[in-house]
Every structure is written in structure tokens, then in C-alpha cells.
């Protein structure tokens, strides 16, 4: 187990939360969320687990979380380790949480994940399809090397720092070793046909090339905007609402026995 200086996790979490709050605030000036006065025509119900990506904390998910709550869903944000930890351990933890939420609700949950959060969602859907009613990913790379060159350098730099002992970061073994090999395999594995899957992405995403987000097992939806803008964009929020409503219109979600 890696040693962390006293207060390290709290300090890092505080810093990332404030960076996330500032980033979303600046992005939201140009790519605004759905207006407060906009009428909700397709009210929803049931649990939605909202998954953050790399370096994304609670404030990053607030715009989408507020929108889904307005629609009537019971929203559960998940930002364990700000998406920076070992992927397989994160998926294991998330799978347990999804099963618990589904059991308490008496029905499977809907997963909505941005960027790396969508990767986690795809892995959880493969591990616990009985607890997942739907998966919606936003700007998620499904290819092993599915980032732009600059973002690839950032990811490998983080992995090197994690291997060197920086607490809370995934390591080189997670990127290319045995540690997260199963997780990586799920990103392009066949998807259970009984679970609706939508991949929302932009052709102008500066972090994730759109071809990496196009999935042959998904209903692929193209939107406008950059990678961070997807967290605040009204167009993305409406696209997510439409996909959730499409599942609602097919009838009640199957109950968990």
C-alpha cells in the first residue's frame, strides 16, 4: 500500500474540486446548460448513476446532475478518486455501488458517464448487466490508444508519476500491464443486446478523436462542442434526456427479483 502524507487526499480533493468548479464555470459562459425556465416534457423516474472522468470532481457533474434531477431522476454522482485511480479497482467499487443502488430501488440503474467515466460504465455493464438498465457515454474513448497525442502524453505522464509513488494515481501497469487488462478488454467487447447503449460524441472534441467514441454496439449520436463543453452544453443535456426518455417510452424498467 502506498504511503500518503497526512492530509494529502483532502488537499488534493480540495484543489481538484476548485479547479473543476472554475473550469465548468468558464466553459459554461459559452456553452450554457438548459435554461431554468425550460419546460420538462418527458419526466423520468428511477435511479441514474452519473460518472465523472479523469480529474472530474463533484462540481464538474453538477450541471448534468441538476438537469437530470429536474427531469425527475434520482441522481447518484460518482467521482471516486476524481477518475485518477486504478481502473479495475474503481470498476470493482462502482459495480458494488451500482448493485446496492439497484437493490434498494428495486430496479436496474441507468449509467451516464463522461469521458473515462463512460469507460467505467461500460465495464460495469459488462460485469453486472442485471443491475444496469441503460448506458449513455459522453465523449468516451473506447480504443486503447483513443486520445489525442497531447492527452496521451498527459495520461502516460500521470501513469509514470503513479508508478513512481504519487498517491491516488493509476500506474503504468494499469495502462499496459496485467493490472487492468480485463478492464481494457471490456472497452471494445460485445455489449449485451438487452441493455440500451448510446455513445454521444463530438467531431470537434480536442481530447478524444470521434472515431474512438464510435461504438458498433451503440446508438451513436453526434453533438457539437469540445470535450469539457460536454459537461455544460444544453445540446448534450437534451441528447441525454432524449435517450433516457426513449427507454421510458418502451415501458417500465424490469424489476430486480
Structure in words:
This protein has 257 residues and is an alpha/beta fold. It has a domain at 43-147 and 187-249: 3-Layer(aba) Sandwich (Rossmann fold), CATH 3.40.50. It contains 9 helices and 6 strands, in the order H-E-H-E-H-E-H-E-H-H-H-E-H-E-H. Strands 2-1-3-4-5-6 form a 6-stranded parallel beta sheet, sandwiched between helices. Helix 8 links the parallel strand 5 and strand 6. The longest helix has 23 residues, at 8-30. The radius of gyration is 17 Å and the shape is globular. It starts with 7 loop residues before the first helix and ends in an 8-residue tail after the last helix. Mean pLDDT is 85; it is low at 8-22.
Q: What's the topology here?
A:
Elements: H1 8-30, E1 47-51, H2 58-71, E2 74-78, H3 87-105, E3 109-114, H4 116-127, E4 132-138, H5 149-164, H6 172-176, H7 181-186, E5 197-202, H8 210-213, E6 219-223, H9 234-249
Parallel strand pairs: 1-2, 1-3, 3-4, 4-5, 5-6
Helix pairs in contact: 3-4
What attributes does this structure have?
alpha/beta, Rossmann fold, 257 residues
Amino acid at each position: 500500500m502506498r504511503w500518503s502524507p497526512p492530509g494529502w487526499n483532502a488537499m488534493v480533493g480540495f484543489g481538484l474540486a476548485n479547479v473543476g468548479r472554475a473550469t465548468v464555470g468558464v466553459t459554461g459562459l459559452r456553452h450554457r446548460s438548459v435554461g431554468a425556465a425550460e419546460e420538462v416534457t418527458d419526466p423520468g423516474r428511477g435511479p441514474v448513476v452519473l460518472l465523472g472522468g479523469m480529474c472530474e470532481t463533484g462540481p464538474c457533474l453538477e450541471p448534468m446532475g441538476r438537469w437530470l434531477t429536474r427531469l425527475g431522476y434520482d441522481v447518484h454522482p460518482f467521482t471516486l478518486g476524481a477518475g485518477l485511480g486504478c481502473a479495475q479497482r474503481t470498476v470493482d467499487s462502482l459495480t458494488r455501488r451500482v448493485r446496492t443502488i439497484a437493490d434498494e430501488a428495486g430496479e436496474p440503474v441507468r449509467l451516464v458517464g463522461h469521458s473515462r467515466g463512460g469507460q467505467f460504465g461500460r465495464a460495469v455493464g459488462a460485469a453486472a448487466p442485471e443491475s444496469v438498465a441503460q448506458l449513455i457515454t459522453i465523449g468516451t474513448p473506447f480504443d486503447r490508444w483513443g486520445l489525442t497525442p497531447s492527452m496521451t502524453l498527459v495520461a502516460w505522464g500521470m501513469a509514470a508519476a503513479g508508478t513512481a509513488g504519487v498517491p491516488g494515481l493509476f500506474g503504468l501497469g494499469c495502462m499496459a500491464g496485467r493490472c487492468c487488462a480485463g478492464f481494457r478488454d471490456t472497452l471494445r467487447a460485445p455489449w449485451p443486446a438487452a441493455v440500451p447503449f448510446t455513445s454521444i460524441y463530438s467531431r470537434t472534441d480536442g481530447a478524444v478523436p470521434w472515431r474512438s467514441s464510435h461504438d458498433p454496439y451503440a446508438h451513436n449520436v453526434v453533438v457539437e462542442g469540445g470535450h469539457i463543453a460536454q459537461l455544460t452544453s444544453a445540446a448534450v443535456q437534451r441528447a441525454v434526456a432524449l435517450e433516457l426518455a426513449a427507454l421510458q417510452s418502451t415501458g417500465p424498467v424490469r424489476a430486480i427479483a
